[in-house]
Batch of 4 targets.
Target 1
Amino acid sequence: MGVGTDGAIAVVVEIAGSTLVALGLGLLIAALVIRLIYGAWTRTQAIAFQHEGHAYLRWHDHRYRIVEALWSSGRRRATTSPIPAPRRPGEEVTIFYHAREPTQWTLEKPYRGTRLLAVVGLGLAALGTLVGFLPG
């Protein structure tokens, strides 16, 4: 009777470990795909300025070219959220710009949540691997 119970426990442990590893790897791959779809974004400091009555930002891209963009052209997560008020001329602003298209910029971190997704995925995969080493 004891042999059957030990075998059932071993099967449950094996299924649980395999499921955790598969789920963890799936989350890691999802985080990687999200990063690849969004492309490379770079954090930098921009200077606010006014030209002909419009608010602009100016910064250097990763190739040290000067990039200027209209304040209202920044990306927002939700299209219903209002555009934040422009900064005063001469004020520094932390922005994130797209490496392939430096005029695409945002005030918010573009990868919000993907790091957590990757960490949870890595944790689940490691836990599933450790469960596989349990005596059973």
Note: The mean pLDDT is 87.
Target 2
Amino acid sequence: MPGLNGHRVSMLGIILISVVSAFAYSGILIPPIDSPGPLFLTGDGTMLWVYAVLWLIVGALAVVDFVIGRTTWSVPAFIGILTVWGLSFVGAWIFDGNTRDPWKTASLYLGFATYALGKHLKISEYERRFAQVNDQLLKGMTGPIRQVDRDE
């Protein structure tokens, strides 16, 4: 396994956020927080364990991506869970009439999700371009493929 690079550092960040979030929302040591977004999304907190499990899945995907050294589903899952959580705060703000300013937290989650999506799309574009250049170089070095008769 090669050393630490930008991709692996990103995966470590996703792993850290995932594990801490799963632990925080599991209620193992302390009761889950009573913030409006989670309560709106999870039926007053009764289904908050589902969110903790989803964070563990995101973390497990990031571990896989860390080991193999490329992105599979961890970044899209990370973006998705941030987006859902951000939208839960929007829902609490609009439908529950909550006065604790959930729009601020919604802005943070949705902002992080948008930033991660932009970086993911840019990196994917670089990877496609690199693969094209690599294919062109390989073709240039090996030349065209031609059929050779056994009698030659």
Note: The chain has a mean pLDDT of 82.
Target 3
Amino acid sequence: MSQSWDDFKAKVWGNRTEVIENVEVRVPVDLPFGFEDRVADLSSSSAREDVEELVEDLFGPDVLDQWIKAKMGTMGLMTVLTWGMAQGSGRVDFTFEDAYNAITSDDPGKALGQPQNRAARREQSRSTGGRSRRTSAASTT
């Protein structure tokens, strides 16, 4: 018996919804291709069209208009977008409070639980006296 993609997707990821500002939205289960790059590109933009594109990709069409009518503010929108991205990345245990803490943190990457990149780990090791390289046998005689 053949199974459609939509049936498979619903079985694996479900069809969860969440009510945000009295608007029922689907909970993202996967991020659209290139979404994180667009977020990075638009991080300094406050143009409505840019924000609307991100919200629509995560939560569906016309959601931003409904949230604006409900008087959602910038912090609320940033919190919901952060939460939605975490959900779409598979972090179903990531709460709205976690998202708020991440955007108000001095170190958002750490608050999001993102691993440090290689350069950051090396710098930390140098500056804090962390793990060092193994001493060669020739040096220990």
Note: The two ends are 70 Å apart (CA to CA).
Target 4
Amino acid sequence: MPNMPVISAMRLRMQIVLVLMLCFPGMAAATPPCRGNTLANAKIVVEARVKSLSIGESGLLLPRDFPKRMIRVDLEIKRVIKGAFTDKEAILYGVPYPPPERMFELSIMALTTGMGGHDTFEWELSANKINSDVSFFSLNNCNYSKFPDELDFLQQRRP
């Protein structure tokens, strides 16, 4: 894609965005909206950019009836808005059944990374503990999030 003119690359990305819009029209309706999803309740909030987003087999040894596919989002941290977090990157994991409430917006952010000044968003880093030493940042929690105003038309209005 490096030899592709900029306008063609942008056109390709917009076509991908349109395909995603057709593939995920009712995703927000499939999961109940989070209540109390506010900045005041969040412990750690960062401004970040999506470096990569993938959905694939987890490789975990799980029961036969448990979904084995997982979502992975790699974030590049631009700044910490609330709380203490010293790393410059974070990895979020989630299961696609049901899909995370903000999956569509994360997909758009992954596609628009590097396309200008509107490719960062605010996200709460919410850790799920496996035991006293092991935890991971989850996509499936009711995380605080704030996406660029340019994505307002994509977000479903909730009462």
Note: The first helix runs from residue 6 to 23.
